[in-house]
Amino acid sequence: MFKSGRYSGFLRPISYGIDLFFIHFLAFSMFGTSFPYFNFVVYLTIAWLVLSLRSGFYEIYRFTHAANIMSLLGKQGIVFVLIVFSFFGFYNQFDIPPAIVFKYVLLVMSCIAIVKFGIYYLLKKYRLHLGGNIRKVVILGLNQKTDRLRKFFTANPVYGYKLYKTFDFKKSGSDTLEECMKYVMDEKIDEIYASVAELSNKDLLKLIEFVDNNLKILKFLPDNKEIYSKRLDFSYYGVLPILSMRKIPIDEPLNKFIKRAFDIILSLAVIIGILSWLTPLLGLLIKLESKGPIFFKQKRNGLDYKEFYCYKFRSMIPNPMADLHQIKKGDTRVTRIGRIIRKTSIDELPQFINVLKGDMSVVGPRPHMVSHTHMYAERIDKFMVRHFIKPGITGLAQVSGFRGEVDSESHIINRVKYDIFYLENWSLFLDIKIVFQTIYNALRGEEKAY
């Protein structure tokens, strides 16, 4: 029996079947029968099912963002490569070229991606134009947050939520919880969104008992207490439920491997492809204009607040204030060649050496001077959260307009907000998007690149 407005009950088995069809059909087409095809089918079927259940590959909902689907496809594809190669490593006597195996994996994941996004967007169009796959919802409590949710439901019909009523418990002659529950049953409502701030503990218990006994879905909107607005991590110690203050995706072993592999590949490409020939040319120009080293190194705070030396091409005349005062617009310490390399962000390229060493990542919160880190840690709330992950050459805050000189307290506050969002919502697709946005901004030129 499927619940009203829900297609996941049969969409997921169909998706499993389609994906496994591509896996086995393309294997037969590309490898023929010159290898143990039956063993391949059994092994890949089991491996794919286990991998998908572990990674949540088919846990896609109407509110899932396209970027999250891309991230799932990326992670699934990387592990799938290893699974397929492990099979042909065991049956190495059949001597199938690695290029053919890579081509097979690429075709499989491309077909799966097309089907996945096809279903995702077709359902959106189905909800928008035909009114199908609809979830009936009500909101309990009237305040600023529930009003934003009401506007979200109204402005985004593609998600398939139809708001029937918002109940207000505070005004005189307002609805009671019992009337709300009766309305839910009479109108066959699917989901209830309740504001924590609007209900007493007694009402919350009564509401939970009601939804459990009537197969309704209950979701809560956090109140103004900050703990409820965090991305909490829920786990069990034995049978005891434990909440952690935040979940950091990069801490998961697979994600850590993917991010480090991305860092190594990109840093090697830049070091070999660009720095190998740019460094001598740029070094000569730097030396001709002013005495001093080609590279400038400065202590910064990185992962777990540990200090490391961050490298740059020297863009200023050597001065004792470099570690104390941040550069400002029209700063007289900047050389002529320095202005050019700072404007184009070329001065940051040596930091790919830091990435290769493991002190930094390509994408992450930008590291500050040690003196500034101490100052901001005392003044700015949650500033230290940025040090849960490696600092980056570029970051979400930088491509969102918060790069360069910190000219106001609101600037650093917003930078921290973007850094924490990145930390809690990391994906490989997000990293790639930030890298391309950084390149685009550098080519276009940025106002605060001085």
Kindly describe this structure.
The chain has helices at residues 8-31, 37-55, 66-90, 98-130, 144-155, 177-186, 201-214, 253-289, 336-343, 351-357, 370-379, 396-399, 409-424, 428-444, and strands at 135-140, 161-167, 191-195, 217-221, 233-237, 240-244, 295-301, 307-313, 361-363, 392-394. The protein is an alpha/beta fold and 450 residues long. The termini are far apart. It has 14 helices and ten strands. The protein is flat and about 80 Å long. Strands 2-1-3-4 form a four-stranded parallel β-sheet, sandwiched between helices.
Summarize the entry for a quick read.
With 450 residues, this protein is an alpha/beta fold. Helices cover 52% and strands 12% of the residues. The longest helix is centred in the middle third of the chain and has 37 residues, at 253-289.
Helix/strand order: HHHHEHEHEHEEEHEEHHEHEHHH
Distance between the termini: 63 Å
Largest sheet: 4 strands, parallel
Strand order of the largest sheet: 2-1-3-4
Question: What gyration radius follows from the Cα positions, in whole Å?
Answer: 27 Å
Number of strands: 10
Low-confidence stretches: 1-8, 225-229
In one word, what is the shape? flat
* Number of spatially distinct domains: 3
Give the rounded overall mean pLDDT.
82
Beta-strand residue percentage: 5-15%
> What structural class results from the helix and strand content?
alpha/beta
- How many alpha or pi helices? 14
Helix content: 40-55%
